[in-house]
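Fold this sequence, please.
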Amino acid sequence: MRILLTLASLLVATQLLAADEPSVPPNIVVILVDDMGYGDPACFNAGSKIKTPHINALASAGMRFTDAHAPGPLCHMSRYGLLTGRYPFRTNVNLWRKQPLIEPQQMTIASLAKTQGYRTAMVGKWHLGFRESGYDQPLPGGPVDCGFDSFFGIRASTDIPPYFYIRNDRAVEPPTNQIEANRSEGWSPIQGAFWRAGGIAPDLKLDDVLPRFTNEAIDVIETHAAKSAKEDENKPLMLYLAYPAPHTPWLPSEPYVGKSAVGMYGDFVMMVDDQIGRVLSALRKANMHDNTLVVFTSDNGPVWYEADVARLKHDSAGTLRGMKADAWEAGHRMPFIVRWPNRVKPGGRSDQLVCFTDLLATFAEIMGVTLPADAGPDSFSFLPSLTGQPGAATNKRKQIVMQPGSRSMMTIRSGDWKLITGLGSGGFSKPNRVKPTADGPRGQLYNL
């Protein structure tokens, strides 16, 4: 009996010592997809008609957040908040075509990570502007000037010209060719295989962009693992992978065509899910799975109309009202998953109110860093809820403030209440804006 008690005491002491030891900083991989609705992944909508096995597996191995929100219901708004911890209404995000939205020296999740010895990389869609003086010239103000050691990606969406790849701060090939506009019969003008006319680089094919980004992300992971095998290169990795899909153009490759019951959109979502699966598999093959925190989410709501729900029997918004760009819930409530082996309990679910802006403060707490006073003013760590730490309930975010796509009204979420300071959707859903009557309401108030 004494031997058993001694062994038990040693085991407890060992566990306590291990708990007191500083943990190895985790690798961090943020996977941001584009225009995927809350109701598309089956792990958030049991009625989804689209198979998303890799996203579902990520949820089973981590924690689902059911009340997570983009800081704005459009691509550039969402990305600005995610990287900086600032609400996008704090700057003029509409200037992204002319100038960088992130100010020099402004802290981002990448620049934070670099201060803590991380190797940082971005692959995918930027959409936060460059200082452009010709596509045969350097493109300052982009990812490599915002904390990322390397960048391979595109300027904006794959339906917004010019279309060309960027490596770090230079066009791989300038957009010297031209491509005609395209759209698909049977869909609205901003659905299907839709893209705008404009310049395109000779080496870029729109239907190759998605797998190309996956290959680049896998290369980042494999290169990092090889460097980490050297004792003097043992750094953690932060990878921000911003897929420009399932945003238009919907371009599923041949193996996915006709595989879903939701037309070309569902086929494309299945392709996106498979690309995510390839990246997660690469982490495991590189022996990085166990010490990598993975965040998965979508930048804003889907372009999915009531007519699409009626015709295809699939609700991309998951019964939420509205769509992309709207002040209504479907515009900004997003599927949000965090997997962190041995730290986050598998199969967990949280109804905590969180916003993409919270990643900066959460990552800072994970790294043991106190943010400067001028960094991430709209960022609140959700680490206590993520890991089940005592006192998590007292640390919860209570409010979110944002603008819809039209930027003509504000949305304020406080507890279970949501105020929209105007009438209409404020976005793509009709009516966009309704003029109030003399004696009628001037806004919308909902108890969620």
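The radius of gyration is 22 Å. Confidence is low (pLDDT under 50) at residues 1-22.
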